[in-house]
Structures are given as C-alpha cells and as structure tokens.
Design brief:
Blueprint: H1 5-43, H2 46-72
Helix pairs in contact: 1-2
Protein name: Secreted protein
Keywords: Membrane, Transmembrane, Transmembrane helix
Transmembrane segments: 6-31, 52-72
Length: 74
C-alpha cells in the first residue's frame, strides 16, 4: 500500500483553511445579529448589522451546499 503524503497534506491544509473560514464567517454572522440589538438601542445602524449577518449566513449555506454537491455529484 502506497500513501501519497503530499496529497494527504494538501487535503488536510485545504480542509483546515475552509473549516476555519466557515466557522469565522458564521461567527461574524452571530456577532452581526448581536450588534443588531445594540444598534436598535440607538448606537448604530440596524439595517447594516442585519444585512451583514444574513449575508454571512447565506455564504455559509452556499458553502455547505457546494460541499454536499461535491460529495454527492451528479
């Protein structure tokens, strides 16, 4: 049995970067929703906080859908 260590390292690196990026994007969405409440109290713009949060969640959903599409195939 032959293991291609370079390919294994590439898969590990890409999956690590994508995972950290996706979790970071989701975190920005959560922070945007929490800022929405403080913006409603008069300290900022509610529409910007809500739009940023929804955009981050939509990008997360698109990344998950793309990953499922890669796994399932056509």
């Amino acid at each position: 049995m032959h293991i291609d260590w370079a390919a294994l390292g590439t898969v590990f690196g890409v999956s690590l970067i994508v995972t950290v990026g996706l979790v970071g994007l989701f975190t920005v969405g959560i922070v945007g929703l929490s800022k929405q409440q403080s913006a409603a109290a008069g300290k900022g713009n509610v529409a910007v906080a809500r739009t940023t949060a929804y955009l981050c969640f939509a990008l997360c959903a698109a990344a998950v859908a793309y990953g499922i599409n890669l796994i399932v195939g056509k």
